[in-house]
Amino acid sequence: MVQYDYIRYLYFNEGLSQRSIAKKIGVHRKTVKRAIENPEQKYNLTAVKDKPINGKYEDLV
């Protein structure tokens, strides 16, 4: 997520505090804390599952 990258940049490179980052960006302090503690974002990509429209009525058709 781009916002998390920006938060980490401000914290580690610019040396801003968590509170000042939260005020500057307009997010909650817990969001800033989460972005700093979790350097990598986890993506949950799931495979597309086939869901037939007629489903349980397929035998009748």
TrEMBL record:
<protein>
    <submittedName>
        <fullName>Helix-turn-helix domain-containing protein</fullName>
    </submittedName>
</protein>
